User: Fold this.
Amino acid sequence: MSRPPRPPRDASRRYHDRVARQYDAIYDDPYWAFHDELSWRLVKPHLPRDATAACCDLGCGTGKWGLKLLKSGYPTTFVDHSGSMVEQARARVEEMGGRAKKATLLVADIVDLSAIPAESFMLTTAMGDPLSICSDPAAAAREMFRTTRPGGVVIATADNKLAALDHYVERGNLDALEQFVRTGRTNWLTADERERFELTTFTPASLRRLFERAGFEVLGVAGKTILPVRQNKRLLEQDEAAVRRLLALEEELAKDPAAAGRAGHLQITARRPAAGGAE
Ligand SMILES: C[S@@+](CC[C@H](N)C(=O)[O-])C[C@H]1O[C@@H](n2cnc3c(N)ncnc32)[C@H](O)[C@@H]1O
Assistant:
C-alpha cells in the first residue's frame, strides 16, 4: 500500500501559529490540570539546586513550563518554532515585571538549536511532545544533549505508540495498522489539510533508546496518565479530595515501570553524564 502524502514540513508551525491565542483555553479542563500536576511532580525533584543555573523550555508554547522555571528564579530560555506561540509566551513573561529580565525568547526548531551555545542549561523541559511533532527526533535529542551542561537534566514528553494501537484496530484497516506498528508514525488530524502534521510515537523502550543513543543516562520513563481518566472525567470532576486520591493511585501504579505502557503520553527524565564520569 502506498503511504498517504507526507504533510508539508511547516504544517505544525502553521497549526500552532493559528491556535496560539486560544491555546490555553483548549487545554483548560480537569483532565489537563491533572496531567499537568503529574508532569510537574516529575520535574520538581530535578530543579537545579543553584538558583542561578540556566534552564530552557523547548516547544514552550504559551510558556506554561518556562514560566514556572522563571518564577522559581532561574534564568530561562523559551524556544518554539511558532512565532505566534513565542509572542504569547513573551506577553506572559512581560507580565512578570522584573523577572522578565531573566528570560530569553527564541523562535527556533528543536532539531537545530545552533543559536544556543553548547552546555548552556542545567535543566531543559520539552513538554507537550515537541519531540513527537518535530521532523527528526534523533537530531532533537542530540541538540538537547549538546545544549545541556554535564550533569544537567532533560525532561521531555512524547506520544505513546502502544496507546495509539487501539485507534488503528478500531479503524479496521489492517494495512494502516501494519504500517503504524512498523513506523510508529501517525498524523495529527486537523480540519485544514495544510495543517496536518506527522507525529512520531515511541514505546517506553524506544524513547529510552533515543536518549541513550544521544549520550544521555536515562533516569526514568513515566506514563501520563496510567488511569484512563481522560475518557472518564467524572472521577476528576467530583472534588479536590477525589483528585488527591487519583494522584496517589497514579503514584502507586507508577512504581511498576510497565504501567507506562497504558498511558497516552510518556515523560522521560535523562541526565547528561557529569564530566569525568559519575556525578
Ligand atoms: C502541544 S504544544 C505544548 C506547549 C507547551 N510546552 C505546553 O506544555 O503547554 C507543542 C509545542 O511545541 C512546538 N513545537 C512543535 N514542534 C517543534 C519544533 N520542531 N521546534 C520547536 N517547537 C516545536 C509547537 O509549536 C507547540 O507550541
